[in-house]
Amino acid sequence: MSDLAALLDGTTPWVVAELSGNHDGSLDRALATIDAIAATGAQSVKFQTYRAESMTLDSDAPPFRIREGHELWGGRGLFDLYRQAGTPYEWHEQLFAHARGRGLVPFSSPFDGTALELLESLDCGIYKIASAELVDLPLIRAAASTGKPLVLSTGMATLAEVEAALSAARGAGSGELVLLSCTAAYPADPAGSHLANIAVLRQAFGVPVGISDHTPGIGVPVAAVALGAVAVEKHVTLDRSGGVDAAFSLLPEELSALVRECTAARAATASGPRFGVRPGEEDTARLRRSLWVVEDVRPGDVVGPHNVRALRPGGGLAPAHWDDVVGRPFARPVGRGQPLAWDVLGAPGTDRPDRADRADTAP
């Protein structure tokens, strides 16, 4: 069984903690973040494997700069940003070993052939294709040719581009495929999450679908799981004051809450519709109202609100029978606190005995 098949066992959502640039240039911080992730219940930690030189040119020309006014990285040169955020190749072996030692499944996003070569040497069991690389079909084919499972993020992609990426992966011999619905904005607005895409992607391509989320908090991932997402990817940091991705990343305690609430969302939606008394409702079902005799009655007394009321618990006739029993005489004595049952009542229309008869039959 592949790593991915084990992670998508259907009982809990697959929660992926993305380290990205939140190591903030420190290997010790990266290792401590892995330790924190392992304590949350997340199953995987994901890295990004690239060098700045493999991502862009070292140029200050306008095309190689992020637009002024961007909330996080306005005006920064791409080369400098990727140099700061990148995870050094020489860290990878230790990071993978540390993650595995903590019970996590590590994997990464390769961004070129050298990255893929490094990750293969580390026996990386899953490859992630980032949203911006979904249109890089040669990269997808190279990753797929390993036969490993691929997770493809779909931010910015048209359905035609998603179809082309999946076709490239399948044609190159990939293992299992998973799509992630994604809004490639940093940070992202929850209103722009378009979670309806989850069902569209699943129906259109017949593969499991999760979410890669860059919104603040955990509300969007929980909603996504309730709508059928099988996986959730979120950036994680030890401290929001540092790191290029820290502002939209979760703290470890928030990741713990995400794992807990997404697991609850999966459990709440895993079964089909069911009405009537369900498992766990038995005790409360015994407290449903029923008709009870509330004062001692003798034969011939007539059922009315003075001697029969709908009260908790169950045990007597259902309150829905009130119109059937009101005005009917009691056929025998019944003590206060006894449930009203058919066998204590006379037939409808039975004449009420006179007082002498009642005295003869009173207990």
TrEMBL record:
**Enzyme Commission identifier(s):** 2.5.1.97
Q: Return the broad EC class.
A: transferase
Regions of biased composition (Basic and acidic residues) lie at: 351-363
Q: Where is this region: Disordered?
A: 337-363
Ranges of residues in domain AFP-like: 290-348
Give a single Pfam family match.
SAF
Q: Does the keyword Metal-binding apply?
A: no
Gene3D superfamilies xrefs: Aldolase class I, Antifreeze-like/N-acetylneuraminic acid synthase C-terminal domain
* Keyword line: Transferase
| Any one GO MF annotation of this record | transferase activity
The protein here is known as: Pseudaminic acid synthase
Q: What is the lineage of its organism?
A: Bacteria, Bacillati, Actinomycetota, Actinomycetes, Geodermatophilales
